[in-house]
Design brief:
This protein is an alpha/beta fold. About 25% of the residues lie in helices and about 25% in strands. Strand 6 and strand 7 form a beta hairpin. The chain binds adenosine-5'-triphosphate and magnesium ion. Adenosine-5'-triphosphate binds next to helix 1 and helix 2.
């Protein structure tokens, strides 16, 4: 599949995520970068549903509960580092425990804290392209 695509709707972004999910096998870390509203959570909906871990409406922005867990047993972890203020707060996410077992870990605003992990990392960059257009790049 294409390493770079321009989508024109949230549905298109989620669909790309569903296709992209086929390439992922645990343990893997998916690092999402891109400005506010660029579509990181929308893309995550696609990835999580593509992995069969939850239904689309169950995938929401991890704001108050800092880490969302999808699937039973846990298959996908989804966190957003945007509101994480300090390294101390970052540590309270308990990512070390998450990394104890193979999973798919998806991080929004991943660039805020450099992560030490031996897992394979996939970086996806999202960019506003005016209106509803978004450029998605696997880097
Ligand atoms: N092509 C598109 N792809 C993704 N989202 C789109 C697209 N066009 C419009 N949108 C809209 O843009 C918004 C993207 O929101 P989303 O929560 O996915 O962004 P985000 O990158 O997770 O933001 P945040 O940094 O606040 O977490 C949604 O309101 C969505 O409907
Ligand atoms: Mg988001």
């Amino acid at each position: 599949m294409a390493e770079e695509i321009i989508t024109h709707s949230p549905e298109e972004t989620a669909n790309w995520g569903r296709e992209f999910a086929k390439r992922l096998s645990a343990p893997v870390l998916v690092l999402l970068t891109g400005e506010l509203g660029s579509g990181k959570t929308t893309l995550t909906k696609g990835i999580v549903t593509g992995l069969g871990a939850a239904r689309e409406e169950e995938v929401t922005s991890p704001t108050f509960t800092l880490v969302h867990v999808y699937g039973k047993p846990a298959k996908v972890y989804h966190a957003d580092l945007y509101r994480i203020e300090s390294f101390h707060d970052f540590e309270t996410l308990g990512l070390e425990d998450i990394f104890a077992k193979p999973a798919v870990v998806i991080l929004e605003w991943s660039e805020r804290f450099p992560l030490q992990s031996p897992w394979t990392q996939v970086r996806i960059r999202l960019e506003h392209q005016g209106g509803d257009a978004r450029r998605i790049r696997v880097t």
